[in-house]
């Protein structure tokens, strides 16, 4: 079976309810992969320091921003996340005319984390990713095995005012600014003729390869894809279905609407099978800079039977222990060459508890129904609490330093009651 990719969504006023930006993403990965949710504080570094990414070491910057990430536990980068400036980033696998089989370099997921650590706006995140792409390239296996599963990347990036779609092919790229309405991406190129930033050699490279005649209007998706944009729009694929779901709620898209979209199985957005939705994220970002963003993460597979738990950036945040996987350091099979000779146990505490309750939901219909109802009730209560912060701000930040971890403990308690 050919692996599928994920779905990422963003909605901006006037498509949203209130002056808010809603960001959402499902991370679709191998069904046995553990996804952790982790927090890293802002950090200062000395000149000349390096940072070890998944496969390669690169130059560190003098200051990194605080980030919360949802990431496959075996690698350094992230599928999705946010930073203290309310920048949100998610990436998708894309395949086109250019081969993705290259040397180990930066993974698209490394670029997600690097952008969040180094960019205080969505547009700056585009610049960070493309500068790193030019300097270090993208490449390496994106699965924890020897299959050599490789791809290029597209990114959906948002902040308090706008969103950007960035699509890459090797070191070449195009970016489109989204200032209102909604946008979704799946695993195909979607930028057509509206290009607001681009690699300076992107058009000439396409012309030299015979993909573009240099005269007709340049359409990035048509030129760099295996297929035309007409195929991308075909009814039945996840991109088209996601677009329909956004349109259905156009003008009143909320966090709840986005969660429902991520839970939708009929569309294939909530993926099942060998590749499945292993983690989900929804962020609510008020346009008012005095109000906090609220970032919801599941840290568990299948959003339909998971709880979206809130995270807010405040000072003195504690590590998210219940959703942090074991670390194997230099002994990790990912770090040793040849890589991927074995797979260690990467299950974090919440994953273990959720795995047990998921089995109960599958095998005991009535009991499973009660557990699911209790999980939804907990989620609803948390969202009601967060609405006050989204509307009036954070008056007692110290009360929120353990917000996500306490929500995880309440979720685990729900499992224990049944």
UniProtKB/TrEMBL annotation:
GO biological process, one term: proteolysis
Region annotation Disordered: where it falls in the sequence: 324-343
Gene Ontology molecular-function annotations: cysteine-type exopeptidase activity; dipeptidase activity
Coiled coil: none
Pfam (any one): Peptidase_C69
InterPro entries, alphabetized: Peptidase_C69
Membership in a protein family: Belongs to the peptidase C69 family. Secernin subfamily.
Record-given protein name: Secernin 3
Species the sequence originates in: Sparus aurata
Annotated gene: SCRN3
